[in-house]
Amino acid sequence: MRRTLPLVLTLAACAEVEPPPFCATATPLKQPLFGDLHVHTARSLDAYLQGTRVTPDEAYAFAQGAEVGLPPLDDDGGPTRTLQLSRPLDFAAVTDHAEFLGTVALCTTPGSAAYDSSDCEGFRERPDLAFITINAGTAAPIDSAKYPDLCGGGADDCLTAGLDVWQEIRDAAAAATDPTDACTFSGLVGYEWSGGPNTKNIHRNVIFRSDVVPDLPASYFDVPDPRDLWATLKADCKDVEDCDVLAIPHNANLSDGTMWGVPGGTLTFEPTKADARLQQALEPAVEIMQHKGDGECFPGSPVADEWCDFEKLPYATLSGTNLGVPGTPKHQDFVRDILGEGLRYTKSLGVNPYRYGILASTDTHRGTPGAVDEKTYPGHGGAGVNHREEVEPIVDDPWLNPGGLAVVWAVENRPEAIFDAIQRGETYGTSGPRLELRLFAGDDVPTDLCGADFDERGMAAGVPMGGSLPDGTTQPTFAIRAAADLGSPRGDVGLERLQLVKGWLDGDTPKVEVIDLVVDGDTDIDPESCERATSTPAALCATWTDEDYDPEVPTFYYARVLENPTCRWFGHACLDGEVDDARCDDPTFPKWSQERAWSSPVWGPGTGAIE
Amino acid sequence: MPMRALLLVALAACGTSEPAPPSHASAVVRPATPPPTDEALLRAALAAGWHLTDPAIPRLLEGKVSDEDLNDPAMRLALAMSTDAVRAHLVQRAERVLGADPGDAVLMAHHAAHPERFRGRAVLEVEHRVWMGPDAEDRAHSLAPADDVPGIPQGATTAEALEQRYGIDVRQVPSGDWSPPHRTALGVHRVRVISRAAGKQPPFRDVRAQVLADWRRERASLTAEP
Predict the structure, then answer these.
(1) pLDDT for A47-65, tens place per residue?
(2) Measured between alpha carbons, how far is B192 from B211 in angstroms, rounded to an integer?
(3) Strand residues in A546-588 grouped as ranges (E)
(4) How far is A148 from chain B (nearest CA, A)?
């Protein structure tokens, strides 16, 4: 005893001790928390120029149920419309464009160093033109990205002015976080790195774990190469005590093949092993859906999947949304393809740069996190319809949509717990409704798990979404449960089908199979009235065992659940007489859809996780 | 005049009933948009509820706005430090600092004056049952054995969370009692409130950020009133 006690004590001291939960509402079984991690306010240049005057403070208040004002603005600059969530969110992050925090402040503050410059006069007097001219800086090629001239030599004026704005954003997140043990809301500090060389969108949302953050965001003008962004985030935060950070690639459907290194794409660099390690460490999740469309899968790539025909944009770059420049969507921009490419890179590099979890958000440019209701949708601005001076006949481009929500399975509602859930991939995205989706996988997952104690027995027997099947797995069983959104202002909408998507590497070729686990809903809907047939079933649950499992073949699995059909905002607008008949009768503009949720993948062995 | 002295002069106007006269009569650098006057600073300071006796004033002077902050942009603009443009910059900085954080003394007073705004929500310990099938209403009414429905959270929660997720209102349900039957697409729900812990009143240091946000909102709404 005398000899072993010191060793025991030493080991105990080395073990990482999990601090006890802070919240009275904490649960070891974890809870689904609904939020929005892509939110622009008046501190974003494009949002401000479109008439958005909602501050970061007000955006967080909106997420918790407060009303905000929306443009058009009246003669005194006040809002003429209002919006309020019917249900508060659990968390949110304001992610204003890092590139112009100081620019907006300088051009809107009389007496500032640049207030009287011609650029700032244009900003105030010709916002439509400034939207193109100043904002176009983010579309400069990587080798010529720079701050606007109005920022002065070395961009010092903008950087100095940006300090106060960044402090305001940090303060707003801290003030929004519930400090009591009821833990009703978490505000996370964040920003958007907004590189879009040649209008090809490779934006990333940067999210911090706590209020320990760098002095200023790293913008596209500071670090125009994504590899430098990761290196900067590592040096300025990950390597700093009490600071931690992650980046979430924007829905890549408008990157024209440049977000990821996919054959046929045009990524500006071929990842090395070091790049891949850094990318996996910094980018644990991807945005699968938002205001500018769905990015899960491209119809026909790599397999036929009729359910991929959902919220697709018909163009491939930001020029398509902002300037009407036609283009052709690229299958290389979709998550399903990129998960397969990650397996391919694992084979060549030994590390998977694209080992992503799944999230969705809105990308609202109105300071309205979580405004995803189709019936009351007022438009999100940004790439959509502007309402600066007057309410347009239609609130948005018919291709666009209100966006989705980010969901995390966390022990408690605290910023750190939410961040940690994203890091481990225990997350999913929804196209808007508050669907509940849970998944466990492993050899020991009982095939009767749907019968009773799903959460308790599932956690004990398997790994959750985002987890890795352990070495030695021989024939994993997947247990998946989905529950409908029961508190929606739409009324209850039943679930139509529950699916599992399996992807693997066949030689050097990524393959995919879509498996229907349960089909039990009703797809009837009358788009002329938005009437639907049924609101059931309210829950679906299934288990499935992969009898073809081969531990030598790199494989991933993710779940997808679809609601019964409901009307899109465009269908409601047609019903309300807000859209001319010709557009409403145009079959290329969908009037209904099947809302859905996508889980993060479960990963098989050999899928390139870093230690 | 040194910058700190200039700032002091400008702030000193907060304690007087009349605005201080402009410090300089030199030509305005950009006549189309004249820089803010000392009167503007006075208005901002008064709107923020500041007085010269406020303990944050020295902090403001000592730490928040340095000569260097103001000198650098002035030098870049090739301006003398006494020009209106520099003074305007100073005013702008002072206004921001004044509006950004009034200091602990003001915030503690605000916290003490409005304790109800910073109290946490009540945490409930609940049992949540669901009955399904054609006779669900009757079975729920009689509290017959419920169905086993995966994913129904039990234990600690808040009344707000139950309302948001299921539309169940337990605010008026006494501890120990069951809520009335409530139908969703899932089935008929009833919730028993086992216990109810009143919302906690956290100390000022734990809610400082919320107090600051509330103070700002209140100030904004007060200054917006005619």
Answers:
(1) 999 999 999 999 999 999 9
(2) 35
(3) 555-563, 566-567
(4) 16
Contact between chains at B100 and A167 (C-beta distance less than 8 A)? yes
- A519-557: string of b/e by CB count within 10 Å (b at 16+)? eebeeebebeebebeebbbbbbbbbbebeebebebbbbb
Q: Which residues of A214-227 are buried (b: 16+ CB within 10 A; e: fewer)?
A: bebbbbbbbbbbbb
Q: Lowest-confidence range among A224-228, A273-277, B52-56?
A: B52-56
pLDDT band at A143 (very low <50, low <70, confident <90, very high): confident
With CB atoms and an 8 Å threshold, state whether B151 touches A454: yes
The answer to whether residue A124 neighbours chain B at the CB level (below 8 Å) is no
* Short-list A394, A355, A452, CA closest to A591: A394
Q: B185–A451: do the CB atoms touch at under 8 Å?
A: no
Identity of the residue in A24, A452, A536 whose CB atom sits nearest the CB atom of B156: A24
Helix spans in B13-83 (H): 38-47, 56-59, 67-76
> CB B151 to CB A434 under 8 A?
no
| Cβ pair B137, B84 in contact under 8 A | no
Phi-psi region of B176 (alpha: psi -120 to 50; beta: other; left: phi over 0): left
Helix (H, G, I), strand (E, B) or coil at A76: coil
Phi, psi of A196 (to 5 degrees): -145, 60
Residues from chain A that touch B161, judged by Cβ atoms under 8 A, are 25
Q: Is ipTM strictly over 0.90?
A: no
Place of tokens 């999740």: A285
Adjacent-strand bridge partners of A409: A32
Cβ-Cβ contacts under 8 Å for B40 (sequence gap 6 or more): B91, B95
Residues with Cβ within 8 Å of residue A378, at least 6 apart in sequence:
A70, A81, A83, A366, A368, A371, A387, A395
Q: Which contiguous run of DSSP H or E holds residue A410? A: strand A405-410
Q: Report d(CA B177, CA B193) in Å as an integer.
A: 6
Contact B163 A483 (CB under 8 A): no
Q: Which residue of B has its CA nearest to A158?
A: B73
Q: A264-268, A404-408, A425-429, B10-14 — which is least confidently predicted?
A: B10-14
Among A181, A182, A436, whose Cβ lies nearest the Cβ of B151? Answer: A436
Over residues A213-239, mean pLDDT: 95
> Cα–Cα distance between A415 and A91 in angstroms, integer?
8
Please identify among residues 503-522 of chain A the ones whose CB lies closer than 8 Å to any CB of chain B: none
Residues 526-585 of A with CB under 8 A from B: 535-539, 541
A172 and B CB contact within 8 Å: yes
SS3 B149: coil
Q: Is A24 on the interface with B (CB under 8 A)?
A: yes
Among A57, A436, A487, beta carbon nearest to B167:
A487
pLDDT score of B7: 34
State pTM to two decimals.
0.84
DSSP string covering A285-352, please?
EEEEEETTEE-S-BTTBSS--GGG-SS--S-SSHHHHHT-------GGGSHHHHHHHHHHHHHHHSS-
B148/A541 CB distance under 8 A: no
Q: Determine which of A405-419, A463-477, B87-101 has the lowest per-residue pLDDT on average.
A: B87-101
- How many Cα atoms sit within 13 Å of A24 on the Cβ side? 22
Query: B142 vs chain A: nearest CA distance in angstroms?
Result: 23
